[in-house]
């Protein structure tokens, strides 16, 4: 007589000379399995049709709260101005937020590093519609329909527009992999009264390269 419990008895069938024991799943595992089947419709009704919040809903609420906090912080700085936008250029969190918007909305026209593609190079000293941060903010907000640039003010929050304007301003002077030739007019960003002439707020004057001028063609920046 076999010393194994009856539940571990060998089954009658075999496969390639291999037999197997009749070893049922543990009873607790079976109950858990049935509990999940019973809980599934309750979960669906509660979270998809009832008061329950899905993960994406909680995420959306948290992001809205975050943007509201950012908005309040920006309002504390005052109305949108060149000074406020320049302050945001020194805020790593705002630059990171602006970079995220830039990657999702702007890389097709301006390239990931800002060197330009369909749109102009954002890293040099030449601008089609002004190189002040307020000019950049206005261009992003209002768009340039004649050049194919949409008005992002209809799709992005004011916080996002301010953040991406500051980020675009921070690209100036960087070295893209394949920079597009300059377009527009040479722009020298002047320091504000309480800023030093050297640094992010200032810029050295350089001689215009061949072909750079106000009549240069290309999408808006």
Mean pLDDT across residues: 81
CATH-level-4 superfamily name of the domain at 80-186: Cytochrome c-like domain
Task: Predict the CATH topology of the domain at 80-186.
Answer: Cytochrome Bc1 Complex, Chain D, domain 2
- CATH top level label of the domain at 80-186: Mainly Alpha
Q: What is the CATH architecture term of the domain at 80-186?
A: Orthogonal Bundle
Number of helices: 7
**Helix amount, in percent?**
40-55%
Radius of gyration: 30 Å
Structural class by SSE content: mainly alpha
How many strands in all?
2
What key attributes describe this structure?
221 residues, 7 helices, mainly alpha, Cytochrome Bc1 Complex, Chain D, domain 2, single chain, 43% helix
Strand and helix map with partners:
Blueprint (H helix, E strand, L loop, with lengths): L26 H23 L5 H23 L4 H7 L3 H14 L1 H4 L15 E2 L5 H10 L15 H14 L13 E2 L35
Antiparallel strand pairs: 1-2
Summarize the model shown.
It is built from seven helices and two strands; from the N terminus they run αααααβααβ.
Tell me what the structure shows.
The protein contains seven helices and two strands. It has 221 residues and is mostly helical. Among the domains are: 7-49, no CATH class; 80-186, Cytochrome Bc1 Complex, Chain D, domain 2, CATH 1.10.760. The longest helix is centred in the first third of the chain and has 23 residues, at 27-49.
């Amino acid at each position: 007589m076999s010393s194994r419990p009856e539940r571990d008895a060998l089954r009658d069938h075999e496969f390639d000379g291999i037999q197997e024991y009749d070893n049922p799943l543990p009873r607790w595992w079976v109950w858990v399995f049935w509990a999940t089947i019973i809980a599934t419709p309750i979960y669906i009704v509660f979270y998809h049709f009832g008061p329950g919040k899905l993960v994406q809903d909680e995420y959306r609420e948290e992001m809205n709260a975050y943007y509201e906090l950012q908005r309040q912080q920006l309002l504390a700085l005052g109305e949108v101005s060149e000074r406020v936008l320049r302050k945001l250029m020194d805020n790593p969190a705002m630059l990171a937020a602006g970079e995220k918007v830039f990657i999702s909305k702007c890389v097709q026209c301006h390239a990931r590093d800002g060197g330009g593609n369909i749109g102009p190079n954002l890293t040099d000293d030449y601008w089609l519609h002004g190189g002040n941060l307020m000019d950049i903010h206005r261009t992003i907000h209002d768009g340039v329909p004649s050049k194919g640039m949409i008005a992002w003010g209809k799709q992005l929050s004011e916080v996002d527009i301010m953040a991406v304007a500051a980020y675009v301003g921070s690209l100036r002077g960087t070295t893209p992999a394949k920079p597009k030739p300059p377009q527009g007019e040479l722009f020298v960003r002047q320091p504000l009264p309480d800023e030093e002439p050297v640094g992010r707020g200032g810029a050295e004057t350089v001689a215009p390269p061949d072909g750079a001028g106000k009549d240069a063609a290309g999408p808006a920046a």
